[in-house]
YhaN AAA domain-containing protein (Agrobacterium albertimagni AOL15), 1156 residues
Amino acid sequence: MRLRRLDLSRYGKFTDHSIDFGAARPGIPDLHIIYGLNEAGKSTTFSAFLDLLYGIGERSPYNFLHPYNTMKIGARLEFDGAEHEVARLKQRSGSLVDERGQALNEALLLGALGGIGREAYRTMFSLDDQSLKEGGNAIIQSKGELGELLFSASSGLAGLSKSLAAAADEANQIYKKRSSSTKLAELKRALDTLKVERNTIDTLASTYAGLKTGHDQADMAYRTATRELGEAQARYQELTRLLNALPAQRELTRLNGELAALGDVPRPPSEWFNLLPKLLQDEIRLSAIVEIADRATRQLVEEIEEIVLDDKAATIAAHMDTLDQGRARYLAAEADLPKRRLALAEQEGALARLLSDLEQPEHPDPAALLLPASLVGTLRDLIEERSGVDAKRTAAERELMRSRENLERLRAENKSAGIASHINHAHLSRLEAAHAQLTGSDLPARLVMEERNLAELRRSYENTIAQLAPWTGDVEVLKRTASTEPRQIELWRSQAVAIERRIFDQEGRIRDLEVELAQTKARLATCASDAMLDDGEAAKLRAERDAAWQTHLASLDAASAKFFEARMLRDDAISASRLSRAKELAELRQLRQSEAAANVALERQLALLAEAQDEHDKLVQKIKALLPEVISHDVSASEGLVTLETWMARRAAALAAWHRMNESQEAIEPLRAELKQLVEAVVASLAAAGIEAADPSVAALVQTAAGALSEARAERTARVTLEKAVADIERDIRERERDKHEAELRSDAWHKDWIDTLSRTWFADKAGSIPAVRAILTAVGTLPSVLKERQDLLSRVAAMERDQVQFREAMESLLIECKEQTPTKDIVTAANALTQRFEAAKLADRLRDGKQAELEKLKEKRLGLEEELAVHKARRNEMTRFFEVDGLAEVEALLAQVRERDQLEKRITEVRHQIMDALRMASFDEAATRLGEIEADQLERDSMELERRIEDLTEQSKQLYAERSLAQQKLDAVGGDDAVARIEARRRTLLLEIEDHARRHLILRTGTLAADQALHLYRDRHRSAMMRRASDAFRLITGGNYAGLTTQPDRDREILIGVTRDGGSKLADAMSTGTQFQLYLALRLAGYEEFAAIRPPVPFVADDIMESFDNPRSEEVFRLLSEMAKVGQVIYLTHHWHLCEIAQRVVPDVTIHHLN
């Protein structure tokens, strides 16, 4: 695909802007530079190109000038051997259209792009400063791994190392050999914990049934005790309520007596209790207020009659505004006139001095000396232009003379030099080709690296052989030694761990059984020491008693009876003692059973231990069979496996080191033969050119050939330079003669314009002196301001004098109208007196109005007081008539008795309800009957007895609750609930988690291994051509500081190495930051050429990637971009003009597009 034209119709800041890249020219690099200042729209252009190919996003940031529904991008694209006019609109569907606006299938562009997506295009076929930095970081993260760097350069995925490392870290967090902190290890420990918990709570059914029965009995006893306690507490509460009701009954009797003593008093309305205090207060207050109001009314009437009004106040008020304004202007004029007259005199003097400077001291009309602004501007331009005209004429004459002198000098040098080359062109071309093949080849560096690598591999092989000590022998003997797979070792390790765990467990159980057996025997010995507890001794005494009885029955004498009595008493004593110690006898029998069971278990554990030890010995023999005799010895299976694994790893490392050493030896010979051919070609080319190579070494041959080529090029360059300099000076002389003629014509034209312009002024006689004309123009420039200032001062003085006269006339007329005395000379004093008179009249008027308003308010208040006094008398009469008394004092005493009666009745009601609530009865009559039936003393005795009963039941309930809680704890400890089922559910959940983590671990491990293998395949497939291109590009970009790139094996991978100019080497991840950027750029350029070699190329866009490059490296990068542009279109965006100049110098056919 190629971009022929990009139309930014309505996108971002662009409107109807088009960038025409033109048609591709065969054999000429398709390199384009888009130049624009900051914010000119370079990044917008690249974004528009991507939006054209893949569609404008849902939320585009480029709609700030054109709305979404108007955005449009167009282009003419070349692919599949034809040109296609396409356009992209901002809409959900059918956004790709042709020149007629008909919708196109998106597959049209996707097919031309080879199915590459937007982000893939941005990473693979564009490059900017940020991606260069990320590429440098990728070199550090990959540690120079060749396959990863090649793939990163081709795809643009600089973060590949980080992604692979993150996947490996996640896999190690899930499972890692011999690690106890991984997720799988933690889950396994959780499984073991659940197993211990299940074993702890799981119990036999018979034991559980016994514990369940004990718990039920304790629960029943506790429930019975709590029921009895509840009944006793209910009876106690009933007695307490009766006792509490007795005091209330006595209080009720007392209240009824007090109520009867009050007698019968009328019941007034309830609001009278609150109204009476207010009536008592109002009776005194209203009398005092009425008296005060009458006195104030009389005083206001007297004050109003004493106020006198001015009858001329209205006349003065009509002229007050005019009076104030005129007085202010009069005073301002009186203060400012002396200063204005003085300033006017000064301005007249300044005008006179200015006219004197203009040589017109007695001119009758100074305004006639003013000049039009256009004429003054023309004169000033001509004055300023004069120096430039003279300078150009002088400079043109001087430059023409200098150019003629330089031409004569170069012609003389050309005749005397006689430059000619001593090597013909054919020999020179042959020598250049041979030298380029030798210097451009990486064979010397590769040979040095291979030889150095061979030495390192030989040392590595010797070190690995030494690590096999005490075993000795060569590699053939080592190959014949026995070996096994790591999977077999892992299988044996798991078997060894299981067997050793069994042995450890069996030995632990044996120790526990031996300790238990010893303890049982000791307790048996203690119990056997007491003869009364021995069953045999008790049976023997019983037999002796029975025999004595039979003897006594036979003889029936005193001796036999006495003997039988003694035996019977002894047997009874032993039986009584054994009966009292039945628990110890049961324990003794249990100990003998435990001893027998422990002996059986000990024998079984010893047999299992011998079986596990036999399996362990067999496994040890298998391991020893794979180890050399010199390092085989008697150890445990685990230790033997560690030794075997170490031996196998060192054996494999030694064999791998031997294979790498052989491969390196085989790779050196072809390199030496190929390098020899290149050296012989250089020697032959030197001999054909007549140059003898004294030293046949590669470095000396390169230096000799380079010197010869440099000398020949210098001669040719000097000859071409001299010829070009002569041609340039001849062309320069023609230009200087033309410049001189133009300067003379311009000088003559200036003189004509100068005379014509001065003829329109009153100082045309000054044409010969430019300084005089400049001084006159300066003075005339100040004349308008002087004239204007003088005229302004004259106007101001006249206005002030007119204001004073008008104010005096107005004051004299006003004084006569107000019947004042004859106007005085001090007109300001008279005006002030009128103002004071007017203010006094206004004050008297306001005072009279205020007094009158206050009088009206007092009258209204007096009427209100009379109404309030009438209401007060009506209420007072109502109360006195109700109680049939004369005054409010007697009413107050009767209301106090009524209030006391009401309080007694309220308290009686409360006490009745209190008694009813205490006895929990619906009516007071029932409660009174119940209280009459009880005897207080008997009730108190019953209450005390119940209190002691409750204390006893409470203590008993506590004890029963403790017994029930203990039984519940034993039952809970057994786990009779679903605890085992819940533990099993948790175990199954853990197993599922282990399965999920195991799957995730396998996916990550398989993915990283597949990625590593793919990188190795990519490295092997693209190493040759892509490495050659990258090596040449890196050598050019670094300015020859690095001769190229090579690789070095490192275990199962190859790492990238830079070969310096002097033959040294440096790892890619050890290079400086700037060099890593240049290395990544070289790899990206080589990757693009590799892509273009197998698929149709697409435009490659670089956005100012050379901001940090110096000029020599920028030149080399442009050379590389021009080589890229021969296989595909390359577009470079920049805001540095010096890069455009460098590109034009290095690639003359480059096309530069300007963004304004």
About this structure: Confidence is low (pLDDT under 50) at residues 143-159.
